[in-house]
Design a protein that fits this description.
93 residues, alpha+beta, 4 helices
Length: 93
Amino acid sequence: MERIALEVDEEMPATEEPVVTVTGTAGRRWVRRITQASGSPGNPLTEPAVREKFRALAGRVLAPERTRVLEDAAFGLAATGDVREFAGLLAGV
C-alpha cells in the first residue's frame, strides 16, 4: 500500500461514477470508468452477491437467526406469491 497514491477529485459530483487511473512505474497509464454501478439495472448483482449484501447490512441491526429468517422469506417470495407472511416478519423487526 505504501506504493499506492490515492487522489480524490473533489470537483467530481457525488452522483457520478468514479474514474480510476492507474499509472505504472514506467509511466504507462490505464483508465477505467464504470458507467453502470454494481447493483444497477445495467449491472445487476448475482443472487449470492445480493444475499451477502443483505446479510452484511441486516446483520448490523438484527440477530443472526432473525437475519436468516428474513433472508429466506425474502428470497422465497417468488415461489410463494404471497407477501403477507413476509410483511408480518417485517412488522416484527
